[in-house]
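[retry 2/3] DRBM domain-containing protein: previous attempt timed out, resubmitting with same input.
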Amino acid sequence: MAAGRLSFRNITALAPMVRVGTLPMRLLALDYGADVVYCEELIDMKMAQCQRVVNEVLQTVDFVAPDDRVMFRTCDREKDRVVFQMVTENTRVSSGLWEKDVAAIDVNMGCPKEYSTKGGMGAALLSNPDKIEAVKASFCFHAVHLFQLEETVGLVQRIEKTGVAAVAVHGRYTEERPRHPVHCDYIQAVAQAVSIPVIANGGSLDLVKTHANIEEFRKVTGASSVMLGRAAMWNMSVFSSQGPDPVEKVMDEYLKYAIRYDNHAFNTKYCLCQMLRDKVESPLGKQVQAAQTNAEISVAFGLQEFYLQMQEELQARRDSLQSDSQPDRPIIDGDVTTMAVKFERRKYPPQITPKMFLLEWSRKEKLEQPLYETVQRSQDRAFQSTVTVAGRKYRSSLWEKSKKFAEQAAAIVCLRVLGIPEGHIGEKDSSLVCKRKREGKMNGSLFKPGGGRSTEIL
Ligand SMILES: Cc1cc2nc3c(=O)[nH]c(=O)nc-3n(C[C@H](O)[C@H](O)[C@H](O)COP(=O)(O)O)c2cc1C
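[retry 2/3] DRBM domain-containing protein: success.
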């Protein structure tokens, strides 16, 4: 742990929870009064392969895996409060990558899952105190499993000597399940035996149901601090000294963060389903389960206007960042010509698009039909298209919010570079697309019968 930045004395913390401890949940926990928030456990080897990307659109720092998945997303708001939980067995592991983005690092010695233990990580570390001592000092440990009392106390004392900042103790044995009562007396014995802060954990099911119970749990365990897992996952307002909020309000607040930070929809669904608990089969629960995108989830919660407004804000930020940084002239690199161009629908008559103009021109020139290839980047799911015309490629350096818009932008680049009319309002009339087509009156391969939404086709 980066000592000095974060104190583990007399705090309440959101426990590390796989799939739950992502950015929107962590921010929600801070809003409701948690002092410290742990992220979900992340495997050190996977993190080492990630690239650190400053996401200027979302105003976050993302750690992006080689397959483009965002493994860890964080933001300034939580910088001094977020604990990065790592699953590791590497005694030389370096925290350099995350050091400047998080307040502390926690080594998980509790994960009983096979993928952790067979690599000597997670709970397997507990039975290898030599290794624990060798894992870099200045970490904070989250130990889940208890052994016999003397063994547990002895182990935590050894951990203390490594110079860690705190130890979170989940008062259950390896073979016990979360439904078993927590052993407060064990946590108390550990708390009495060491001088570093002990964070009591494991009380969600039977002991901590309200904010007042947090203090009771702290007292009964004699611990310095309290960490909550499930009680917080079910209703984050348990951290609030103002009393609980109805879970419906908590879900709304959560969803707003999920939309604002472009949280992966499957993760959003998972967290909402944990909050719905026994209502997961209710009509709302079924709607959430059926949804595939954050947009669809927002409809289930009546937050579609918030969703649209947020998309507009993010797009405006994306546009201004892009236009600030990109020159408006073609850059040629090999067979690719790039230009900073955006497709602005309002600049074209309803039936006309640049793609349509490019297609007509290619036909007139007896060239092959333009070929569009589109990619989507993970950090903001924006699109970029490349169009191939007469063996050369054209693309816009500006990323668009949809595949259709990205294709139109690529078409504009090609048209501008080749000096071909693109069909926007106020442009000198060209004969490329005839008047009847412009008005959408033709039934042909280009237009839907009745002159319908031709832009759908192109
Ligand atoms: C959904 C879920 C995911 C969890 N993931 C992790 C994890 O990633 N790392 C970890 O050390 N513990 C993990 N745990 C254990 C919790 O951090 C905590 O120790 C446990 O839930 C007991 O606390 P509680 O009674 O307050 O829930 C997880 C627990 C739950 C319910």
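[retry 2/3] DRBM domain-containing protein: Residues 304-325 form the longest helix (22 residues).
[retry 2/3] clearing retry counter.
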